[in-house]
Write a structure and sequence with these properties.
There is one protein chain. By secondary structure, the protein is α+β, with helices and mostly antiparallel strands. It has 24 helices and 20 strands. The strands form 3 sheets. The protein has a 6-stranded mixed beta barrel with strand order 3-4-9-6-8-7. Helix 7 packs parallel to helix 10 and helix 15 runs antiparallel to helix 24. It is rod-shaped. Its main location: membrane.
Length: about 1000
Amino acid sequence: MVRGLQMLRKSTLREIKNSLGRYLAILAIVALGVGFFSGIKVTREAMIKTADEYLADHDFFDYKVVSTLGFKEKDVKALAKESYIGSAEGSVSTDVLYSIDGEADRVLMMHSITDRVNELSLKSGRMPKADDECVVDYRLVDDDAVGQKIVISSENEKDTRKMFKYKEYTITGIVISPYYMNFERGSTSLGSGSVAGFAYINRGGFDTDYFTEIFLGLKDHYSIYSDEYNDLVDATEDKLQTAADKRSDLRYQKIIKDAKEKLSDGQKEYDENYDKYLSEKADAEQKLADSYQKIIDGKNTLAQEKKNLDAKEKELKASKAKVEAGLSKVAAQRKDFEANKQYMTPEQIAQTEAKLSATEKQLNGNLSKINAGLSQIDTGRRKIKEAEAEMPANLRKYNEAKAEANEKFAEAKAKLDDAKKDLDKAKREIADIKAPDTYVLDRNTNIGYACFESDSNIVDGIAKVFPIFFFLVAALVCMTTMTRMVDEQRTQIGVLKALGYSNGAVIGKYLFYSGSASFIGCVSGFLFGCWLFPLVIWKAYGMMYDFSSSLYYIINGPLAVTSLLVSLLCSMGATIMSCYAEFREVPAQLIRPKSPKDGKRILLERITFLWKKISFLYKVSFRNIFRYKKRFFMMVLGISGCTALLLTGLGVRDSIKNVVDFQYDEIQVYDYSVVFDKEMGTWRQDHFQKEAADYVDDMIFVHEGTADLLTGKTAKSVNLVASDNEHFDQFVKLHNPDGTKLNYPSAGQAVICRKLADEYDLAVGDKITLRDENMKKMELTVSGVCQNFVYNYVYVSPQTCQDQWGYRPEIKSALVNAKDGMDVYASSSKVLNMDHVATVSVNNDLRVRVSNMMKSLDYVILLVCLSAGALAFIVLYNLTNINITERIREIATIKVLGFYPKETSAYVFRENFFLTGISAVVGLLLGKWLHAFVMEQIKVDMLSFDVRITAVSYVLAVVLTFVFAAVVNLAMYYKLEKISMTESLKSIE
């Protein structure tokens, strides 16, 4: 008995050796099926795990807290004390125009280096030591840039320039930042509107005393994108918002208090300076007035003195005339005295002489006095002239002193006026300081983090369906192979049973054959698939993402066990079923060959006029194809499955790649949208349109907000658009999926996007309920379902909101088309700098983002198509090999009949090509269904994919199927050559 079992094992090993091609085919088909199944299944898990490890190693933030007033160090410390916070660090960041080596100005996002969050990976060079050094984005510059200088452009706003301590920063290293996970660097109001890259400097390189944001890390750690992590964020976000609002309010109160104290001090200083100014001005004016009065008084005094001198001179001259007249009279009297002296007595002479002398003496004395007085008058006049000569100089000095005083006090007054303006400005600024807006932003606000989830979800969506169908095709072929093998060896089974081997021993031989092939194929396929597929897909996504860590491979134990069990079940189960059917017969019946099938006419033979025109060899081929239905269906199912996989892979690419083009070429046809920080009333709208006329061709103002779509027990957040602008359809073209135009909803109606309709089974005429942030509800009738691919939209009229919510929605958005011939980013950058503009969203940004995402998806689809091609090759090879093995005597016979090698191969392979053609047609139908099913499984919240397959993909799927068939036929040609013609003489008996 033992010897018999040993012989049976030798027989089994000999069977493997003799039918090595079939054995390897089973092994390969299982390896490929399991490899694809397991590889795709673990890919997202490996991607997420790798990203999770990378972000954990670099302390990627959990929250970013931003306030319009900024934060101080004490705010950071206060938030760090929250029980659920593990780490907190303040940071400074701003966008700035810069240049390197005299290049044109570009926009750089400058950050301060943080120690405990968003840690940088140094690619080359070193980290900054001095405050005037920096490290730069590796996507912006190459290693040769180390040592060059980044120059802060003078074109920046003054407030921006003031944030930097230096005008130049020397590049010391090239880095990768986890804050910028993918290729996107963001948009800006500066320059062209897009950020070229980032740079990090030491905190001391910024000349600010506040932080622009605070990065926070939670104490608890869960895998990214996991339900546990999302629950943690949901549980802490509101608490953190409350704490952040409190800190912002305290900072607001402190800023107001400090500003008022500073204003009070300034007002006090101003008042003191103003009083001093008034006092000094009054004193100076009094001195000037006194000085001027002194000049006037002196002038009046001189005039009076001059007048007095003139009067005295006149009086003296009159007196002098009288004296001179008296002297003349005395002279005449003396002359008469001398003439009459002889007639006078001595006494008379003496008396007369004495009298005349006394008179003459008196008159001469008076004359002397008069002359002295006249001389004094001349001296007085000379002094008056000298005083009058000094008067212009004194007046000039007065005027100079007055001008100097006026200039001095004018400057003082100007300084006081400037101080008063500053005080008034400070008062207005204090009055304008609003309570801060504080935002608690989680990781999902980071573009790279959010995009990676969407990208990995696409892989996960493919993994939900593709591998299962792939595995089913492989399992089908494996079952077919073993069934055919057991059928071929029924005689050998009969002989073994006749020799006394038990059913279990005989079955064990075939179970070992199929089981060992499946086991080896499953193990090798699982290990190879878990290594290859994640690696290839990760390398593809590596073009978009900056994860510096190597891929974290996943060995999923339950998945391995499942794959092994399914593989063994398919191969060994088929073996058991086939053997069971044979073991119901006695050995004598098994030894005898099965009776050949009765000859029957095929359907084509009944179409006489067509059948007569077909050549004999083609008639034989058609009979062989359609008479052996089991082989026919196995071939069709196997090959059509491969065609379906190829078409589905290509169709996924068609459906995903162009959705953003469809969105922005066929639906939202405007260039960019603008969000304002104030409601845009009619006056503001007119003013804004006039101000933007140089950059904008056309625009409409709409309400764009969010609302909750109530669906049973859950609420779905949707984008709510309300507009009554008659030109709305020039910016957003609402149409059905079939392309027919939709009218904008009237009062009480709504147009919803297709994704919402599909997700919640809504149709035209159904009722929906929307709820605003104040928990007010609005009942609407669906008037249309529009085609839409990006985000979830519900369109209503403003009157509907007025009727049901009691208010018209605020108009704080505009849809804009840039000026013809003007770059969209240049236009959006100009608009972003205008009053009341909060943000600008350029449609092309999302178009570029998805386009880059599709570059990575191309590699995934290529991997799928190559795997499908390999599967098609193995299926065709295996089934063709079985076909040739079953018909070996038939083929040998036609060789004996004189068929040349090419005719022999054409006789066999003609059937393969016919079957491939039929299978390809079936595969296209099956692929269309499979593609639609796969697209239902690929769910990305922000995107709705269009289920469409281009004509090129249909043609390519068929062509590739025929290429694989041709390669198989070429490979099998040499097997036909080796068939000996003596095989035709052998008998099963």
